[in-house]
Amino acid sequence: MVPAPGLRKPELHPVPDPRSVDPWGADPQTIEEDSLRICACPTCFGDKRVVCAVCSGTSQLRCGFCGGGGSVAGQRGPKNCPTCRGRGTQKCYECRSGQVDCPSCERAGRVEAWLVLRTSIWHQVRVSSKNASRLHPLVEDAADFDRSPAELPTDLLTDEFVDEGRLETSIRPELDSWMDRLERSRVQNFSADIVHFGYATALGVGVLDVAGKPPTVLSSSNTAPLKFRLIAVAVAACLGAVVAFALMGGYAGRGQWYLLHGSSGVVTLLGVTFVGFTTWAALGLTLARSARTTLRAVVPSAGSALLLLGIALVFAFTGPSLKRAEQALASGDVGRATAEARGLISDNKDVMWAQGVLDEVHLRSVKSQPTVQLTSAAIASSWYSEAKRTAAIAVLEPRAAAEVSTAWKTEDLPALDALAEHLAAPLPAHAARAGGLAKLLRARDCAEKEDLTCASRELVGVSDPSVRSERKIIEGTIVTTAREQLTASVDKAERATDARTRAGRLLASIKIATVVEDLTGRASTPSKKELQSRYSVVERVALREEAVAAAKAKAIAKREEAVENARKRREEAQERAANRANAALRCADGTLSPTCTCGRPRRGCCSHHGGVVGCSAD
Fold first, then answer.
1. Which of 100, 102, 98 is nearest to 55 (CA)?
2. Can you give the pLDDT at residue 113?
3. Burial degree of 325 (CB within 10 A; 0-12, 13-18, 19+)
4. Exposed/middle/buried for 199, CB within 10 Å: 0-12, 13-18, 19+?
5. Label partner for 418 (CA 20 to 30 A): which of 204, 309, 475, 582?
6. What pLDDT score does 65 carry?
7. Whole-angstrom distance, CA of residue 14 vs CA of residue 1
8. Are 466 and 435 in contact (CB under 8 A)?
9. Are 323 and 340 spatial neighbours (Cβ–Cβ below 8 Å)?
10. pTM exceeds 0.90, yes or no
11. What share of the chain is helix, strand, coil (3-state, %, to 5)?
12. 3-state class of 406 per DSSP?
């Protein structure tokens, strides 16, 4: 190892006073020597003069009085600038012919400078052996030269300073012949005992080289057999894990029963144990032949085979059972019975009996529902036996009839709508009755709100025979209400003072009469035809009155518009006259009089501008 040499770098700085401290901030302690010399001025390059910065070397400046135009305004028009005499430029008084004396060298053409040398020292470390860093990690660190020999990982043989000529080529420093100088070289020699360990595996024979403090395996060692053994064991473990996970997934994937009620935990335990025995067997079988024993190779291999046999037995002798399904159903364990039956169907064993178990579970679920809506939803799901579905509908029918009657008595319109929706599939007759009763309640509500059109529309939609009696009751109520409204509407029409109001009320009466005649099938009092004839007469009178009123309004609007236009014309004429009176007079030379206006006497106006020629507003 060799420490690096020192370095000196020259720098040339032009300064005004060579005896002063370095003006660019250099540390005075680093200045080792300086030598004065004379050099050309870096500003003028020895010419002693430079270009004028004021005029940029043109020796001319723009005139500040006329702005460079050469002319100014006079009493009788533009005239030449009195400062530049019409040229637009002035002579630059800061220079001579566009040049001035150099400010850096004060017209000397030369400046004084000195050469500053600074010295810095660093170290270079060279190592002759490429394997040294494996035993000695800090061997390329300069501070490692001064470590205690007891702390070194190898034995220190020599430590001395040598001349440059005695250095080996491999450890000589890299120097710049112009800038670098070698100050001193220090060489250390180390030694270490290497121990060779031979070993063998089923995949080959190798040697381990160990040296250093603490012992370290050298890169010259042959570790290929160990690496191959490690790879072989890892591959065997991975293959065992793949087989184990495939068996566990295959068992649980056979159906939900195998995952929840089968022996999936046993298969998982056997699979994990199989992975461990497979890895153990791979470790024993990859040993050298002389190192293999019954415990290391035969026992784990036999264990792996037995574990696979155990998993195969679990696959073969575990599965859902019809007997367990029937026992669970008899004891009230519906969930277990369902799982056993679905497992049988999935395995295609005792399918018909399993479907019977599922239908029985389904029927019990229907019976346990608290409301008609939930019972209908339970019946809507699939059945394996139509007889069981019929039995479920028989359970639903008395509940549905009772709830429809209760909803009608309590006038619960939302409940009737819900029943009509949920009973449409299992009990269409009850659904039609619930829907018809709901329409009757809506018709009655429309009649109470005096919306007879809505009431008639709802009644027309009721056609189920089971609600015939209820429909007659609601229809009688609506007809009575409609006749009362018709009488009141006709009276209001007769009392109307103008034709348009009377026509509107007659039109409303016609709508009410239409509802009465549609519901009863007989003519109303007064009849729809009689009301239509009255409406035709009144409508013609209303149109004639509206035409007369529109003509009068148009004439009034036209007269008001004419008055407004005349007022605007007067105001515009007054404004034009006022603007002309305040406008300035125009003089003969084209200027405007600053004091005289068109609305005042013109005596003495534009006396200095050739007289008055007219008004500027004309």
1. 98
2. 67
3. buried
4. middle
5. 475
6. 76
7. 42
8. no
9. no
10. no
11. 55, 15, 30
12. helix
